[in-house]
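Morning, I've got a small favour to ask if you have a moment. I've been staring at a protein lately and its backbone has me curious. You're getting the sequence in one-letter code plus the fold written as C-alpha cells. I've dropped the whole record in just underneath, so have a look:
=====
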Amino acid sequence: MSASTATTWARALGFHTPVLAFALRTALAAFAALLLAYALGLEHPHWAAMSAWACSQPMREHLLSRGIYRFAGSVVGVAFAVGLVLLAQESIWVLALGLAAWSALCAFLGNLQRGYMAYGCMLAGYSAAMVILLHVGPVAAIWPFAWDRLLTVVTGVLTAVCISWCFAPRRRTAVLIAQSRHALAGVLQAAIAPLRPHAAPAPAPMAALLSRLAEVEELLELYPEGSRTARHTSRAMHWQQHSALDLVYHLGLLQRVEMAVDLAPEGPAEQLVQALESLVQALQAAPESQQAQALRQCLQQAIAACEAAVAAVQAAGQAVPEVLHALYLLLQAMHSGWEAEQRDLQGRHRPVAHERRMAPLPLHRDWVGARQAAVRAGGTLLLLGMVWALTEWRLVAFGMLGLSVMLLVFSGFESPHRTMAFVLRGQLIGAALALLCQTLVWPWAQSGWQMVWMLLPFALLGGLVFAHQRTAAGAMDTNMAMFILLAPVFPQTGGWTQHLSMALAVVSGPALAWLVYRGVYPTNAQRRLHTLARMMLAEVPALARRLLEEGRPALWPGGSAAAALWQAQLHHRLLRLVRWADKTQWPARGQLHDLGLSLRAMQTALLQLQQWRRDTILATSALRRTERLAVLALQRTAAWGGVARAPRQQVRLQAAWRALSAQPGLPPELAAQALQVAQRDIPALEALRQQLP
C-alpha cells in the first residue's frame, strides 16, 4: 500500500493524518520506556511510559525543553516529598497539611510563569503527591521509592527524546517572523498618513492593528523554548511589540486631535514617507535569506530619513513631536532585532561577537489567577487530606493523587471546568482499556515479561485514540490513566473488583476537579478577560495612592524607570486583553484601544503632576491653591473605583481635574492634559468599568 493510499484510508477512518505519525511514534516510545524500565528492575516501570507521553512534543526544541522541565520538576517534588515523609514520621495529618501547602505554592508559582516553566512548577507539586500518597510502608522505605520515581522519569524522558528526536522537525521560524513583520508593517502604514505634509491624519484601524499584534504576542509564549537563539529573537520581538504599541498610542492621540498636524518640514517628511513605504513593502515579503539585506537597507534608510526629519524640526526651533520620537524608537527596535531574526532563520546557534544582547522586557503576570489557583488547590487537598487522616482509607489517597494533577496542571487553562469534561472522557477510556487488559489479557501471562509485551497493543491503541478526531480531546489523559493502572507485577494480585475500585478512584479526580472548578473561583475565558481588565483599571488608583504616600518633597521612586516599567506591563496586558476579547467576541472589544489610550494618558498626567509638585516652590497663594487642588485630584483618583462606589464619584473626580486644569499656576501643557483627563479619559474608563461584572 502506497503512502498516499494509507493517508486516504486514515482520513476516511477519521484520523488526523499529521497527528497520527506523531501519536504512534510516541506510543512506541512509551512502550520502549516501559520495556527499558522493567529490564532495569525498576519497581514502577509504567511510570516511565507516563513520562514518555508527558514530555513528547511535535517539535524538536519543545521536546527538549519539556523533557528538561519534567526532570527538574520531578527532582524538586521528590526532594520535598522525602523531606516531608521523614518529618511526618507516619503522621497522616502532617502529610496532608504539608502536601496541601506545597500544592498551593506550586499552583501559585506555576500560574505566574510562562511556557514550560509553568509545567515544571506544576509537576513539582504532583510529583510530591505521587511519592507521598503512593508510598506504603515504614519511613525508611521512602528512599528506594523516591529513587524509583526519579529513575523512571529519567528513563521515560530519555527514551522519548532519543526516539522522537530523529523524527521531530524543527520549529517553523519563518512563520512567526513573517507574522510579526506583517503586524509591524501595518503599524508603519498607519504612521505614514500623519507624516504627509498638510494632511489630516486618516483614521487608522487601531482595533485591527491591536488584534494582529496580540496574535504575535500569543505565539511568543512558547517560541523561545529549547533554544537560546529563539529566546533572543523572542526578546527582540517583545521590544518591537512594546515600541509598536507606543507608536499606536501616539497615533491614537493624533486622531483625538482631529486636525491637521505638521510633524516635520515638507522635504524631510516626504523623504521619510517614501522610506517608510519601501520598508513596508520589504516587511511584507517572505522572510528569506536572499531578501535579508534588502530589508536591512530599507531599515537603515528609514532610520536615516527619520533622523533627518528630527534634525529639521530641531533646526526650526521646535520640539520633536512624540509621534516622530515613537516612530524612531520602533525603527531602532526593528533594526536591533534584525540580526537575531536572521540568525534564527539561518539556524545559527552561536551569537555574533558584536551583537548586543537585549534585556528582557517586564511582562504581565496573573497575580489574581495565581492566588485563586493556590487557594483552590491547597484548600481542596487539605479537606480531602483531613478525610484521609480520619479514615486512613488508601482509596482516598489515590483519589487525592488524581485530583492534585487536575488542580495543578489545568489551573492555567482557558476554561478548566470545560477541559475537565474532556479529561474525564479520556480517563474513562483509559480506565476501560486498563480493565480490559487486567481481566481478559493478563490472566494468560506466564511471566512478568509476557505481561509487559501484552501491553504493546494497548499502547498502540492509546496512540490511535490520540490521533482520532472524536477522541483527540482528552486522549493524553487516556494514556496517562491507562498506564497508571497497568503496573506489570507477576503474578497479578487482586480481582476485578479491586481493579474496578482503583479505576474509579482514578477517574474520580477529574470528576471532583470539575466540581471544584465550578464552585471555587470559577473561571473561563470571559472571567479571565474581566479580571485582567479590572487589574488594568486598578493601576490608576494604585498609582495615585503611591504618589500620595510619597508626599511632596520626596522623589518619585525609580523616576522614569518606574514609568517605563508601568508602560511595558500596560502594553503587554493590553495585548493579552485584546486576545481574550477576540477569542470571546467581547462586545466591548472595540473600546480597548481607547482603554489603552486613556490609561497611558492618565498615568502620564499623574507622573507629570507629581513632577510639578516636586519641582515647584510654592511662593504665591495661587501656587499654593494649585497644590491643594492637585492633592485633591490625587485623593479622588486614589479613591476612584473602590468596592463601594458612590453614584457621584465620577462627577466629583472630573470636577477635581477640571478645576485643576483651570489654575494659572499650572504649566499649559500639564493643564491641557488635566483637562483631557477630565473630559475624555475618566468617562472612557468609567464606561468600560460599568461593563465589567
Remarks:
- The longest helix spans residues 228-257.
- The two ends are 59 Å apart (CA to CA).
- Residues 112 and 365 are 5 Å apart (CA to CA).
- DSSP finds 26 helices and no strands in the chain.
